[in-house]
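Objective 1b. Sequence-to-structure analysis of choline-phosphate cytidylyltransferase.
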Amino acid sequence: MKLQSTHRCIDPRDTLIEPAIFARETSCDCRAPHEKLTIEQARRGTPVDRPVRVYADGIFDLFHSGHARALMQAKNLFPNTYLLVGVCSDELTHKYKGFTVMTEQERYEALRHCRYVDEVLRDAPWTLTPKFLDKHKIDFVAHDDIPYSSAGSEDVYKHIKEAGMFVPTQRTEGISTSDIITRIVRDYDVYARRNLQRGYTAKELNVSYINEKKYRLQNQVDRMKEKVRTVEEKSKHFVCRVEEKSHDLIQKWEEKSREFIGNFLELFGPDGTWKQVLQERSGRMLSYALSPRESPCNSPPRELSPLRSPSPPSPPARWHNARPSPPTSPKGASASMSSMSEGDEDEN
């Protein structure tokens, strides 16, 4: 006898764009008779119309990555897996485990939007019974292998393991609902101040009047500290920029000073250009002093100035009226006497 499906065929791509469906009275989409499978048969693969129906249950309070990774492992146990997730109600959870942060409706919706979940079973039983397994045509149950003691039992999955229907998954270390709650309790003041700052009232947070004033004062102090810290960061940034600029200026000044000193030495140094110029000029002036240049041959004759009149000609000498100057020496006297005798002869 074949089971008739009352649901549409589930496309694996729908799990990425649509939330998972809620289970009805029976939600087995198998068209072939539901026969029990062994783990070896499931790992080899099953026909498309006969997926391996794997069941995982839990509280899933404060749904986090540890929950998602466990469901991912359950989804990937076999090549063709249809994952059903059972979520316990608030009544059962508060009775056997404790108070939850999220309500059962919030937890149902959180599971529906996990990409690995194909179907959500609301108000799941705390202990799995053969009747429940047969009703939902469950082939295997996936859970971590740590014994789960609850409801007077050392391990609520013991009978599942004995029936060969248990498939273990691995827990994600460092993350759990209890860890998250522990962080909130440990840092209660921080989160209370945070929510007061975001507009929640002291009544909503169950905070006393004195604590409310204390938290608000602490928030103001923190804001002032943040402003001071911001100013310090800006000032540090400004100082760093000034230091960078000063380093650049000093470096440029050093480069320019080196260039100036080099040019000065090149010009006025022991072997500089200025010394050579002075030596050339001094040598040229000395040569001019020792050997002055001659006047050119073709220079024009010196003419008298028109403003000057020529001096009158001197009258002819009259030797007979002229008085000879006395001789200064005997030789001069004899010379004059001889000249006078010669003049007389000429006259004669």
